[in-house]
Amino acid sequence: MMAEDQGIAAASAPVAAPAQEATAHGRAPWFTRGVRSIGLASFLADLGHEIPTSLLPSFLTATLGAPAAALGLIEGFADGFAGAARLAGGALSDDPHRRRTVALGGYGATAVLSAAIGLCATVPQVAVLRGASWLARGIRVPARNALLADVVPASAYGRAYGYERAMDNLGAVFGPVLALLLVSLVSVRVAILLSVIPGLLATLAILTAIRATPRPERREHQPIRLRVRPVLQGQLGRLMYGVAAFELANVAATLLILRATELLTPGHGSGAATKIALVLYIAYNAAATLVSIPGGHVADRWGESRVLLGGVACFVAAYLGFAFAGPAVAPLALAFVAAGVGIGFVETSQHSAVAGLAPLACRGSAFGLLAAVQSLGQLAASAVAGLLWTLVSPRVAFLYLSTWGVVALVLFARVRPRRGPGVEAGPFTAESVG
Description:
By secondary structure, the protein is an all-alpha fold. The chain has 2 domains: about 30-215, Up-down Bundle (Growth Hormone, Chain: A), CATH 1.20.1250.20; about 230-420, Up-down Bundle (Growth Hormone, Chain: A), CATH 1.20.1250. It has helices spanning about 5-25, 35-65, 70-90, 95-115, 125-150, 155-185, 190-195, 195-210, 235-245, 255-270, 270-300, 305-325, 330-355, 365-390, 395-410. Helix 9 packs antiparallel against helix 15 (about 395-410) and helix 14 runs antiparallel to helix 15 (about 395-410). The termini are close together.
């Protein structure tokens, strides 16, 4: 091994001990205080995030009098910040001591910066705060995911990440509902300011999780450096290439809503079509929420590869449905539900597989690269699909996305499952890399 790889292997042992020892003599409980707290943090943080996100278009155009183009510029600016921040957050989170600080600071900063948008009087102020909040949000993601692997036995990664994904999706379901409730009672400004409450509660929840995390036996200085080379080797590298292909198929859900709205408008009218499309989007999020934990159980029992392949297959079927669907509601509903099942399976198994495959001393870098690939891949998928939609047709756009889904199926099929049926051993291991 190179010197860097030797350092990674040496540094990993003391951090891994608690989880590995817990599973060495049989099954260990996985629904621990740390897991519950991280799930609660994800739910509350997404709840707080969805309030300003849902109200931002109205705040910019109606309150500040900005043109609609300002929203696109601000969100594009924020997305770019978030993608870069995920890589930085991964480098910061390799150190198990440092990842605690990063997670706590990221959650607290996101809550305050997002809510402070309600105080803005100009569009540039909104842009700065939105970008800063997404920067903090991006930095915290790898730290949270690495913390979750620290507080759960290795044999239960699937269930733990499934629970976290389910809680995150649940926050996405209830966040817009809470935003609508707030604006019926107070002004848009005040509603955005009140989003700080769930955000700060999420910070307290992540603090509880940090206190439940086993402390490393010794503290060694680790330089802040994104370790890409170990992450792209062996089985973990194969997984990452599959993730990249899948994210190039994973278009923003707003385009799914737009497709449903356009197909339903001729037969139902614009207003009714919009409402039906939003109900279908709720079904999408509900499906993702409901399958995340069962998908994690399957990953723990049979290996992540099967869950990944099943999820991507659902995604490809859904996108083919969007490509060829007509104005009937039922086929569109099936496509939304299939896409929700697909994203629920894939996100859960991606996180679980990375937790098990990544060398322990660069687990933060692995989660940082995963999050960056997810963010930038989705951005590229939405951009290319949007161009094909405009220049050719929506059908061609979804066929293009389906093609990347098929590529992802081929790449994920090359990733070895972490264990066969009936085996209670641990998950993907660092020793399988290389």
